[in-house]
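job 3f2a | input accepted
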Amino acid sequence: MDLGFSAEQDMLRKSVSEFLAKECPYERVKELEESDIGHDPKLWKKMAELGWFECFFPKEYGGYGDSFLDLVIISEELGKAALPSPFFSTVIQCGMTIIEGGSEKQKSELLPKIAKGKLIIATAQYEQEAGYLISEIKMTARLSGDKYVLNGTKMFVQDANIADSIIVAARTEEGVTLFLVNTGDAGVNCTKMPTIAMDNTCEVIMQDVMVAKEDVIGSPGEGWRLLEKTAQKAVVVKCAEVLGGCKACIDMTSDYAKKRVQYQKPIGSFQVIQHYMANMLLGYDASVNYLYKTAWMIDEGMDVTRESSSLKAKVNEQSKYITERGIQIHGGVGTTREFDVALFFRRAKSSEYVLGDTDYHYEKVAQALGL
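job 3f2a | predicted structure (371 res):
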């Protein structure tokens, strides 16, 4: 197992980092958080032109067919920059779902548009109970002639307010089925929700929304399998993003501890601060190495059912510790908009619940162990 980076991957990391530092510094991030649309369409277009959205897509659908590790590298840098964008919802969650279960027509039409930044899509899975199990999906899809009629409410739909389409999980006679719904269709109502991350988390209400049979992704009743299979890889990418934020938090907290003077000494000279910083770094190092191992396994075509859940549980816990200690070392000012460290604390708390919280993934690991 080789966990080293190639010269091309080192160049990729450097180019993404430099681009984001120039185009979206933290002050711009805060402006985007406070805006209605929550992202910068011009920046989104520039990112697409750099080929970031294409890297993991198959070549026959407008992609480069690059390694999964390349995707992890890009996501880490996006996390370090705390960039508000629909990258995860569109390129990762929806892109991978279409690759895994879409028809040939859906792949050839949708993936090139995503790759070029011309299509934003969101995934609507969770509902009012906010559970991660198949039993929590209550939205109905009733077949009427050659169309399905969707009714129900979806919660915590990331980027639905700026999406052109939404992949919706609903119940048909065959079981959970995925539908591609245009956000402009009659009966689709989207409301942005206030969240700690100040992101584009939305409530989507669907009332008698008509969806054609050809807009089913996969076969009827196959939706849950597609969601579960896509989640194994999407979880790893989300962990890369969160760990990128953790690294930025560690770096800026270390700098602050060296400069902040108390009792005529930098606070970094006090043992308690040193131990906090050491534990933050140890937690990050253990998590990021497990991240690279899991990414390598995906590139090798290996089963990562246990590893992806182990990683998510680990990152959930470590990101909370790292960002909380970052805030604590900064003191009260760390919670204000004046200091950037709060960006990562809020992101870590929000990301904890994306694609399964810690308890959910503990259960998944236990199941993988046969318990």
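job 3f2a | The longest strand covers residues 147-158.
job 3f2a | closed
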